[in-house]
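Allow me, if you will, to draw on your knowledge of protein folds for a short while. The matter concerns a single protein, recorded as an amino acid sequence and a row of backbone structure tokens. Kindly check, if you would, that the fold set down in the tokens agrees with what the sequence suggests. You will find the record immediately after this paragraph.
***
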Amino acid sequence: MLFGVVSFAQTTVTGTVNDESGMPLPGANVIVIGTSSGAISDFDGKFTLSVSQAPPFTVQISSVGFTSATEEVTANNQDLSITLIEGSFLDEVVVTASRVPQRIFESPVTVEKYSLKQIQRTPSADFFEGLQNVKGVQMNQTGLVFSQVNTRGFGTAYNEGFVTMVDGMNTQAPVFGFAVGNLIGLNELDVESVELLPGSASALYGMDAYKGIMSIKGKNPFEHEGISGYYRSGTTQQEVGGNNAFTDFGIRIAKKLSDKWAVKVALSAKEGTEWAAGDTRHTRECSNCGEGSIVEGYDPNAPDYNAVNEYGEQTFTGLQQMGLIGLGALTGAPNAANYFDTVVTTGYTEQELFGNEASNIKGNFGIYFRPNDDTEISFSSLMGTGEAPLPAGNARYNIKDFVVQLHKLEVKTGGLTARAFGADKFVLSGEEDPNVLETLESVSERFGGNFEAH
């Protein structure tokens, strides 16, 4: 007679899971890597794991909010002692919620943090556009170089009710009364983190922050030295504007001059061709008819032709009365009958009025001084200029050759911070077009027309 005997190796592993302070961690998962065998620690952090696998093998220990750890099992009945370290997410420090440094896990309100690692990994064209991947954010992109971050809906290009801070400076532009988005600020090389509070923050930041606040923190040259840069190029395609080149580049230079002094400077430039409106369908004068005001296939030579994206079409009808004397008739002949004389002026496209170039140049400079280990004094400046369209309701405005400057003096000592900053006025220079009628007049003269602004 033949007897078959099958034996299985049985390995038992016990252990305790604690945190860094020595407190037991209940609910920690203990699994054998490569298998589905596992156990869960009890209220005292203890676990017992029995597997049908002979040593050596590796177990992985994990718990929510902690960094996973691995241990090698080399013998049966081995007793393990595991200490898990709190995950970096819970250790991240935020300032936006209470204006004092605190761990994000302890924040009394929801704060979304966009870290340096996330900025470096974003698949978007730049870090500002990558913010649309943050929970609770809607990105209002009004053109190639102008974007606005919005929360809680009801977002417009003006984005009233949402405050944008860069290193503690409110980027609201004088005259306009709203933040100019990514047209002024830091390029992605100099951004350390972005904190977003997607709810009302009026108690700490004033009535302008009833939708929320975004705080962008730049890198300190004492901790982040070196030279870095980036360059991007591509082509934009549009039905009206065709194919056009797009370029974007930036550079950052930071140097620790000594144990007490450090400086940094960062610069970026973006240039391309803006989307051009080219709807030539006729719109009729009609109140409360919505989309019914658009007429397809209308004759562009008709006197009342009014294209959607052509501006300045005018029809003048004059009552004329000419005597036969002017036609060479006999003196004293009766006047001829009255008749109407109609003159139609063609409109101008958006490209003829403003062009469709888009550009943005921005930079920042900072000098830092540490007289001792607990004190830091810094002076920094932000500047931005360029050209970009600004939608306003059903119309679009072109802000050209603007200059926005922000300057800040800050003193940190111990747990106290004193900060003073100011913003220069919004400056228009060069070929600004403050009035559409004046623009129409100048373009009309260039084309030999006779359009007058009143």
Q: What stands out?
A: The chain has three domains: 11-87, 94-275+355-423, 282-351.
